[in-house]
């Protein structure tokens, strides 16, 4: 096969050329600078930078909090998508539009709003404080911020699949004597599974890299509530460019891996739905 | 999105009323706790000490220069990525070539890179210790801790928005209409302006709205390259951070409220564009049937 199949439309060379040039200048060249810079490091220095105890603790905080936030949104995202697609209630269209708020609201605004609300003397935090729950300036605060930031992903991946689900399947299952709960577990859930996992992976990937909403509420205590992106910033502030580069490379590799996982899930999802049609 | 096509379901394919109410109640409580209360609290905190302090925080010179820098950044970054998005979607959706899906993955890449890493890569290129740092210093060009760095970091984080909106849309539309226009004697550019552009205008606008919201609100990437020089290299989100860290909460939330307002306008515009795009699609289908 030739590189390009014949077409009567003009502009292939111009549009692809510009695309590749712009992509290289804005994305590929700067990212390769990171890899080259890390390549200049001695292996032992690199290993030391990415595995010192404070950095290891930050991986635990980042991945742990991201996982919990993604699980929370897996459950509540499914519930929210279900309610929005299947039930009717007043104000439904506003709630539907509001789901995208975390995409539209700048992360720093979300960060200071959540930190103020959940501080021990905040409007919500003071009541939680009475029962001994501390949210702001603890790892729990990080989970709250990440839950906010990644809220839309599962809702928006599940919603269209749920909308296209054929009612006939459920009717058939019911006529064969299945209970509502059995229908949900055996008929609906397996169909939604690829979309659910895609949304989960998107939420998790976004949470790992998140910075703006977290730093205000986290308290940023070493070994307890420091996230990995903050470690990069603090290395930069100490002019430790190599240390920052090493940790950034670890995050970049994780991002790549997540991107591949998400692509795989989307491919699986498309195949699943294609077969059903 | 939904709501209009909800025909009443038979009793076997929905839940009993109490279960429906319970599930709706839990879902709405979750929305209230995580979305509504934080949003409302931004405005409540901003107006806590009255209108006069609120306005004073906004007309103060540093706040004003942050607003101007934010607008400037968006005015440069969004059109650049708009042109890129159209070019990329034209190449990818209208032609078949090797390595296409790999190219799409690369275009999506900035979405999965942490904003902090996005800022760092430009520091490594243009910073004092970076690849081109010495050369830039010799020629007295400042990119990092200056406006160009802020623009570059913003272009990076908003890179995929328009392209990823247009690629699936243009793939779904095919190229029959463009081929017809060319056969009838239109030039390539005429075909693009008169046939393609009207077909993709809602998708284009949708991508621009999302890119603009991100460009004006970006924090992490911009924070790394900005250097936080008051009145010089602070965008609104960075100005909010400084005020907040100085315990100047009313001013911090006053500036944050502009961004929250921007978010609400974004959501409204997005809903309108979704509605308009659905209407256009329905109309096109009707024409196709006739």
From TrEMBL, chain A:
GO function terms (MF aspect): ABC-type sulfate transporter activity
Coiled coil feature spans: none
Topological type in the membrane: Multi-pass membrane protein
Pfam families registered for this protein in UniProt: BPD_transp_1
InterPro entries per record: CysT_permease, MetI-like, MetI-like_sf, Sulph_transpt2
Record's keyword terms, sorted: Membrane, Sulfate transport, Transmembrane, Transmembrane helix, Transport
Localization per Swiss-Prot or TrEMBL: Cell membrane
Major place of residence: membrane
Gene Ontology cellular component terms for the protein in this record: plasma membrane
Family: Belongs to the binding-protein-dependent transport system permease family. CysTW subfamily.
Function: Part of the ABC transporter complex CysAWTP (TC 3.A.1.6.1) involved in sulfate/thiosulfate import. Probably responsible for the translocation of the substrate across the membrane.
Name of the protein in question: Sulfate transport system permease protein CysT
Organism: Chitiniphilus eburneus
UniProtKB/TrEMBL annotation, chain B:
Record-annotated ABC transmembrane type-1 domain positions: 67-268
InterPro entries per the UniProt record, alphabetical: CysW_permease, MetI-like, MetI-like_sf, Sulph_transpt2
UniProt key word Transmembrane: yes
Upper lineage: Bacteria, Pseudomonadati, Pseudomonadota, Betaproteobacteria, Neisseriales
A Pfam family that the UniProt record links to this protein: BPD_transp_1
Membrane topology recorded in Swiss-Prot or TrEMBL: Multi-pass membrane protein
Task of the protein: Part of the ABC transporter complex CysAWTP (TC 3.A.1.6.1) involved in sulfate/thiosulfate import. Probably responsible for the translocation of the substrate across the membrane.
GO molecular function, one term: ABC-type sulfate transporter activity
GO CC terms: plasma membrane
Location relative to the cell: Cell inner membrane
Regions crossing the membrane: 21-44, 64-90, 102-123, 143-163, 204-229, 249-269
Protein name: Sulfate transport system permease protein CysW
Superkingdom of origin organism: Bacteria
Subunit structure: The complex is composed of two ATP-binding proteins (CysA), two transmembrane proteins (CysT and CysW) and a solute-binding protein (CysP).
First-listed, main subcellular location of the protein, grouped into a coarse class: membrane
Keywords (A to Z) from UniProt: Cell inner membrane, Cell membrane, Membrane, Sulfate transport, Transmembrane, Transmembrane helix, Transport
Organism from which the protein derives: Chitiniphilus eburneus
């Amino acid at each position: 096969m030739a590189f390009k199949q014949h077409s009567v439309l003009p502009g292939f060379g111009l549009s692809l050329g510009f695309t590749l040039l712009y992509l290289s200048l804005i994305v590929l060249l700067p990212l390769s600078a990171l890899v080259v810079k890390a390549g200049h490091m001695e292996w032992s220095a690199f290993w030391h930078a990415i595995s010192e105890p404070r950095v290891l603790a930050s991986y635990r905080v980042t991945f742990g909090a991201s996982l919990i936030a993604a699980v929370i949104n897996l459950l509540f995202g499914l519930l929210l998508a279900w309610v929005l697609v299947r039930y009717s209630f007043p104000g439904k269209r506003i709630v539907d539009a509001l789901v995208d708020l975390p995409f539209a609201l700048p992360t720093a605004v979300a960060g200071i709003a959540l930190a103020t609300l959940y501080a021990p003397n905040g409007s919500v935090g003071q009541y939680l404080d009475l029962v001994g729950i501390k949210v702001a300036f603890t790892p729990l605060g990080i989970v709250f911020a990440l839950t906010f930031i990644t809220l839309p992903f599962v809702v928006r991946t599940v919603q269209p699949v749920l909308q296209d689900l054929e009612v006939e399947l459920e009717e058939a299952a019911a006529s064969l004597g299945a209970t509502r709960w059995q229908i949900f577990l055996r008929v609906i859930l397996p169909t939604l599974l690829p979309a659910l996992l895609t949304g989960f992976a998107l939420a998790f990937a976004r949470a790992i890299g998140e910075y703006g909403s977290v730093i205000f509420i986290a308290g940023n205590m070493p070994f307890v509530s420091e996230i990995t992106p903050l470690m990069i910033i603090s290395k930069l502030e100490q002019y430790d460019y190599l240390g920052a580069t090493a940790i950034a490379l670890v995050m970049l590799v994780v991002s790549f891996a997540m991107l591949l996982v998400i692509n795989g899930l989307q491919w699986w999802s498309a195949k699943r739905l294609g077969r059903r049609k | 999105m939904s709501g209009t096509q909800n025909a009443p379901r038979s009793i076997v394919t929905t839940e009993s009323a109490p279960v429906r109410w319970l599930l709706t109640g839990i879902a709405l409580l979750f929305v209230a706790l995580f979305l509504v209360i934080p949003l409302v609290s931004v405005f409540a905190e901003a107006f806590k000490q009255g209108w006069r302090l609120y306005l004073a925080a906004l007309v103060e010179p540093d706040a004003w220069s942050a607003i101007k820098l934010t607008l400037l950044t968006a005015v440069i970054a969004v059109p650049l990525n708009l042109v890129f998005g159209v070019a990329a979607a034209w190449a990818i959706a209208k032609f078949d070539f090797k390595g296409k899906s790999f190219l799409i993955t690369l275009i999506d890449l900035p979405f999965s890179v942490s904003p902090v890493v996005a800022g760092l890569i430009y520091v490594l290129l243009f910073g004092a210790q970076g690849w081109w740092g010495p050369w830039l210093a010799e020629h007295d060009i400042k990119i990092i801790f200056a406006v160009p760095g802020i623009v570059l970091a913003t272009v990076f984080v908003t890179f995929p928005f328009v392209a990823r909106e247009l690629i699936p849309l243009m793939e779904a539309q095919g190229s029959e209409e463009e081929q017809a226009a060319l056969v009838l004697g239109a030039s390539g550019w005429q075909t693009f302006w008169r046939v393609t552009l009207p077909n993709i205008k809602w998708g284009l606008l949708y991508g621009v709205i999302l890119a603009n919201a991100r460009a004006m609100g970006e924090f992490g990437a911009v924070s790394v390259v900005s250097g936080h020089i008051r009145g010089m290299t602070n965008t609104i989100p960075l100005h909010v951070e400084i005020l907040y860290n100085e315990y100047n909460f009313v001013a911090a939330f006053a500036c944050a409220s502009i961004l929250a307002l921007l978010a609400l306008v974004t959501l409204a515009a997005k809903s309108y564009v979704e509605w308009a795009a659905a209407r256009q699609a329905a109309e096109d289908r009707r024409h196709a049937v006739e």
